[in-house]
Amino acid sequence: MNVRTLARWQEDNPLRLWRIAEDLAVGDVAAALGASRSALRAWEAGEYRPAAAHMAVLRRLTGLSDLSERWEAWWRANPYRGDRAS
User: How many CA atoms lie within 13 A of 78 on its CB side?
Assistant: First the structure.
């Protein structure tokens, strides 16, 4: 696994890109979602996927009606695919 490839992929996470563009802290977004900071960090790192209920709240929070599609495209590009991404 190329560490730079993984880091680039993580940097392209659509939730992370939105959060940074809006200048929001992980804790602020997590609180708005009713999730923990560690859960949000894990989603942004690609360790886990948000549950459907969280994704629905994320779409409303971000105003990105296509967030699910963006997320899935990003997820499919996971360099760990077949390793631990599920």
Answer: 19
Please state, in angstroms and rounded to a whole number, the distance separating the CA atoms of residues 14 and 71. Answer: 6
Q: How far is CA 40 from CA 1, 2, 35, 57, in A?
A: 23, 24, 7, 13
What pLDDT digit, counting tens, does each position of 77-86 carry?
988 775 544 4
DSSP class of residue 12 equals T
pLDDT recorded at residue 80: 77
Full-model pTM = 0.85
Q: Please give the class, per CATH, of domain 3-76.
A: mainly alpha
